[in-house]
């Protein structure tokens, strides 16, 4: 079920990933079960399970809940922009991922864009308490990849 009224369902590029971004997620994932933090439309097909506090997408594997409350293990955890809210949330997500997956991949904005509504934190690799294993730099964002 899709809630057509949800404000972020069809975010414009670069807020929404494109096919090249999806390829980067795919190339860095490992085989196994995948959790998506949030319900980014272009990443739904890559995930087995999606978790969000207020998901616009309600499918058979959608969990309504807090990202930090995840205690289940997945080979991959993916997120798109989820590290850009606050430093505390970013640190909590990375801590949760380090305990519950083998690979954590985040497309993270590194600066404020004029079309952004709610992002307030634009982390650089040195800002993380666990440094990413791999970084792929794009113009407006970077992919931060951790292998635990």
């Amino acid at each position: 079920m899709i809630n057509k009224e949800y404000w972020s369902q069809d975010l414009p590029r670069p807020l929404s990933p494109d096919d090249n971004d999806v390829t980067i997620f795919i190339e860095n994932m490992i085989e196994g079960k995948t959790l998506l933090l949030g319900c980014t439309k272009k990443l739904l097909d890559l995930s087995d399970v999606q978790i969000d506090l207020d998901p616009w997408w309600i499918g058979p594997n959608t969990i309504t809940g807090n990202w930090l409350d995840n205690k289940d293990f997945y080979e991959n955890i993916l997120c798109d922009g989820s590290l850009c809210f606050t430093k505390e949330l970013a640190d909590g997500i990375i801590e949760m991922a380090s305990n519950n997956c083998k690979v954590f991949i985040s497309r993270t904005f590194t600066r404020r864009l004029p079309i952004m509504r709610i992002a307030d934190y634009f982390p650089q690799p040195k800002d993380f308490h666990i440094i990413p294993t791999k970084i792929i730099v794009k113009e407006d964002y970077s992919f931060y990849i951790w292998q635990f």
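Strands lie at 34-37, 49-52, 62-64, 74-80, 101-109, 134-137, 141-147. The first helix runs from residue 19 to 28.
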